[in-house]
Amino acid sequence: MANRLFQRFTFVERIVHWVVGVTFVLLLATGLAFAYPALFWLTALLGGGPSARALHPWVGVVFEVGMLFMIAIWIRDMFLSGTDWRWLAAVRAYATRDSANVPPAGKYNAGQKMFFWVQGALAIVFLVSGVLLWFPASFSAGLLQWMRLAHYAATLGGGLFLIIHVYLGTIAYPGTARAMIDGTVTERWARHHHPGWHEEETRP
After folding, report:
1. What values do phi and psi take at 79, rounded to 5?
2. Helices (H), 36-109
3. Positive or negative: CA dihedral 34, 39, 41, 47
4. Tens digit of pLDDT for each residue in 131-187?
5. Torsion angle of alpha carbons 173, 174, 177, 181, nearest 10°?
6. pTM (two decimals)
7. How far apart are CA 15 and CA 72, in angstroms?
8. Beta bridge partners of 128
């Protein structure tokens, strides 16, 4: 039954994912609007210029809380194993769909695990730099300048990773996004992308 459905994510996991995703998009859009006058119209997502400036850090708080929950939920599954290192060495075969030469991934492949750690590192940069920029009177001008640079660099990096994340979950590998909508994937998808996990799920 290739179309049998497998439960991949729980309702709570999906809510946490979407809280982090939606808040990050709002932060990215308004942050770019503050940096580039041509994009200032994006502040309409949070009610316009003054409102967006007031709400931006508070949306950041929600994002960071969501990240804490995300880390608590998934960190145990995100440490790289020997199979993961072999998967990374064969990433070109995975990208070209040469599955015969790709080590069988478990529930999460090495690319997803690396994305998790990069996302966590960026969240720390956002948190530290964001807090300092939220209360500028308490810090020196030189330190704040470095924090602006770090916040901006993390924004660009996070935006790039967001584009890659959405592309891989929709266009590149159809059926992947479904896991974060209704929590399920087809058996065909599981067997193709995460054969190790599929084996665990179907083991008698």
Report:
1. -85, 135
2. 49-74, 82-89, 91-95
3. negative
4. 999 999 999 999 999 999 999 999 999 999 999 999 999 999 999 999 999 999 999
5. -160
6. 0.93
7. 14
8. none
